[in-house]
Amino acid sequence: MSRLSTALLAAVLIVPAFSRAQGAGPTGTSSKPANPAGPATGVTAGGTPDAAAPGASSSGASAPAAGASGTGKDAPAPPRPSLSPAPLPGAPGQPAAASTELDPATRDLVRREVEKAKEEMRDEMRAEVQGAQSAREFMETSAAGERPRLEFLQLNGYLRVRGDLFDNLDLRRDPGPSGYSLFPRPLVDPDHRGTLTTANTRFRLEPTLNVSEQVRVLAQVDMLDNLVLGSTPQGLFARSDGVAFPLDVRTQVPPADGVNADRSSIVVKRAWAEVQTPVGLLSFGRMPSSWGLGILSHAGNGIDDDYGDSVDRLQFALTPLKTPLGQLVLVPMYEIVATGVTSQDLRVARGLGQPFDRDSSDDAKAYGVKILRMDTEEETKRKLERDETSSSFGLWYMYKSQAYAFPQWAASSTLPSTGQPVANDAGTGTTGSNDAVGTPVKREATAHVLDFWWKRQSRRFRFEGELVGLFGQIANAGTDVAPVGPVLLRQFGGNVQAGWKFADGKLTLGGELGMASGDRNPGFGNRPGRGPARCGVGTLGVRDCDVDGAQFDPGDGTLAHPADRVLDIRNFRFNPAYRVDLILWREVLQGVTDAAYLKPTVRYELIEGLAAQAAVVYSQAVYASSTPSGTHAPLGLELDLGLSYQSDDGFIAFLNYGLLQPLSGLGYENPEGRSLSRAHAIRSGIAVKF
């Protein structure tokens, strides 16, 4: 018998006995004395008292039956055996028949048994729901055990349209030594204009196919994914004789990758399955990945999100285990990070058949485990209603490795390899391998990732945080046979959030503190593909540095450009889907790294569904040498204001305004009277969520 069945049986047996208690003895017999004129109560075979007879006294004491005549004498009737227990201690002289309640000790025992039964039922429900919830990667969707039974197909998703205005996001700053500006400028008269406006749309569909009560298939499909409105008019790129000027266009055509857009009309981003087994939840396929606050892994399921992690993973959420720390869920996982060179099927035309991995030696793979104790949303809600505190925490560990790589293939637009031999340079034979993929490089790269997350929440207070560290090395980071390395990986980061609720929950005062490690090399390191960042003399003869670039420099073998004394990558990068502000980290620097920030916030619910919020974000680099100035650490002070509305039927609207005051770190080493411009941003959107 399960713990839930035992708890239910205990509640069924104990609660009715407690509600009926009239002083019943331990053997189930009545505690009332027998009526001399006939029994006023009876006892059933099960020990349950029957209803009182019509002649019974309401007090339970002996009384003559109605209409009974005496014997002519007042002598008492012969005594009859009493079924009542002895008088309670501490109540001398009080007849036992007058007692109608349990003694305090027995009543306390019954109460404890009832509370124990309730707690066991809660534990059983928590274990079942928590196992499914953990495997859902903290997504805002129903757990596997909560889905409707009769619906084969469930459709979720949203349609959104957003409009943005960006003004002077380049801060009117000159390009760095490598020629990159802080933000793209207008194409026409960029020296005197700095305002850009744009609008985009996305239709996201997230179907769920409930194959059975234990099996379901899920997917995420984006249609017109962040399509810039007006970007695919008839006649543009796909030429049409019927259109001479864009002004004459009367319709938009579907976007096609490589023809008139950088992506297709329909993009399948995720597809995975979940199978509930007797020992846990099995998940496999290309699925979302999210953890904690999202600085390491973020699914990007928000209505205003642009990014999000999708991984090729096999994982198994085991049945929760009872430990001194509470119910813990273990989720072992295996992930294919990168396959490397693949081959097309030569038996059929391109795009058909089954491609395959050309060589497992260049595969990047990951093995990991998640350990967590987490209250579900419903469980948290019940605890807060009882004025209790909800506590959750978890640990994420992952080991990644890659033995070989083909840098030439990875850096080009090479189609999947055919596996055919190619002629050698002399033309007298064949190489027998590696058509257009280049020479393999022995990477010998390894990394250990450890992340700890916690959350504690009460009715008025929430405290949540996440700490992450990455330790490893790349034995050879070169792109040809000449070795470069080893390159050390030493990174860490974290953030904490706190919030206090007032005025019946309408007013929330909060704050956030975040930090990501860095190093003394120039640039922040969010875009290492640009090559090593450098400092030099800008276009107007003023020394400044690149805002971004690779964080280790192997040099070129000359005295003018020597290699770094220690080759390492120490800048931890927040997940790009994790948003701190509207301008500096979201648009200009494109993610928190090599810096720290402080963010006090306030939010007030004006009416049901309509809320206003405000935040001030102060940001500063960990090392001044990483900033464009090369000598100053303060980056900026940003004010963000917002208004959002959400109705009960899924309509959503938001309007946000940001103002960035750049500080000395984004300027020049020697400003010489050259000041930076303030940046403004207006972001708005309307959506329907279903």
Helix/strand layout:
Layout: H1 3-20, H2 104-135, E1 153-167, E2 195-210, E3 215-228, E4 266-277, E5 280-288, E6 310-318, E7 321-323, E8 326-338, E9 342-343, E10 356-357, E11 364-373, H3 377-385, E12 390-405, H4 407-410, E13 441-457, E14 461-474, E15 487-502, E16 507-516, E17 535-537, E18 543-545, E19 568-569, H5 584-588, E20 595-607, E21 610-621, E22 634-646, E23 651-662, E24 679-689
Parallel strand pairs: 15-19
Antiparallel strand pairs: 1-2, 1-24, 2-3, 3-4, 4-5, 5-6, 6-8, 7-8, 8-11, 9-10, 11-12, 12-13, 13-14, 14-15, 15-16, 16-20, 17-18, 20-21, 21-22, 22-23, 23-24
Helix pairs in contact: 1-2
Produce a short descriptive summary.
The chain is mainly beta. The chain has helices at residues 3-20, 104-135, 377-385, 407-410, 584-588; strands at 153-167, 195-210, 215-228, 266-277, 280-288, 310-318, 321-323, 326-338, 342-343, 356-357, 364-373, 390-405, 441-457, 461-474, 487-502, 507-516, 535-537, 543-545, 568-569, 595-607, 610-621, 634-646, 651-662, 679-689.
Folded structure, characterized:
The chain has 690 residues and is mainly β. It is built from five helices and 24 strands. The strands form three sheets. The protein has an 18-stranded antiparallel β-barrel. A two-stranded antiparallel sheet has the order 9-10. Helix 1 packs antiparallel against helix 2. The chain starts with a helix and ends with a strand. 27% of the residues are buried.
